[in-house]
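Before relying on records like the one below, remember that each one covers exactly one chain. Contacts with other chains, cofactors or solvent are not represented anywhere in the record.
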Amino acid sequence: MDLHNNTHHRPRKGTSKSKAAPTLPSLWITGVNPAMEALRSGRFNVREMVVARADVRAQEIRQWAIRRNIPWRQDDREALTALVGHEHHQGVALRLEGYPYTPLDDLLQGPIEERDPILILDSIQDPQNLGALLRSACFLGARGVIIPRDRAAGVTETVIKVAAGATSYLPVAQVTNLARSLDDLKTAGLWIVGLDVRGERSLYETDLSGPLGLVVGNEHKGMRTFVRQCCDFLVKIPACGPIESLNAATAGAIAMAEIQRQRLMHGAKK
């Protein structure tokens, strides 16, 4: 199937009806690197910063807070631990006014080469897996991530921590109807590729160099039936050992790496 030929998709008309979900309640970003990336990106509405360390990194973080006009205060580690509910804060925490989900329409704006690949996560429920997938997606050049609002993990403090700064740069859309959103992606000119252990073709024998959205399913059940039916085709990572399947976060990272490998090779041949 030629991913560069989108004639089977109808032209996009108007704007999508899919909307971002309401933002989450106030949450904390903890840890030096996640906090630093959040301040650098300027993407979050940071209400305050609390610092419980006195070194060069703390000074750099304070300078960024001052630059962003964010109120900050110095406190001790015990007080910060009580404030955020755990001791793994590395002496710095930012309080956000909710995570700013991105409207799906915003992911579909601009030239098609500037808005793909998009990662679609169907009912990923473990915050550790969601954070790992966001980190891999950001590193491997994804332009955005789509998650369902119901029966799936949202962007929480744990997710932000595991993502190690990725949530500061990678837009995440939270939608109420994943099937409709996949249809919107097709209308916008993207092919929908599902990662499935029962896929009819190998990931490594499929042309992934064209505009696409990659779907990764639930940790235990994979993609839901209606989501699988929305895919243009299904691909699998061929097993080379006795284990038949991979963790969702690992499988997603492998697939995204293959997408970028093909695009790099495709670009080198031009």
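The radius of gyration is 20 Å.
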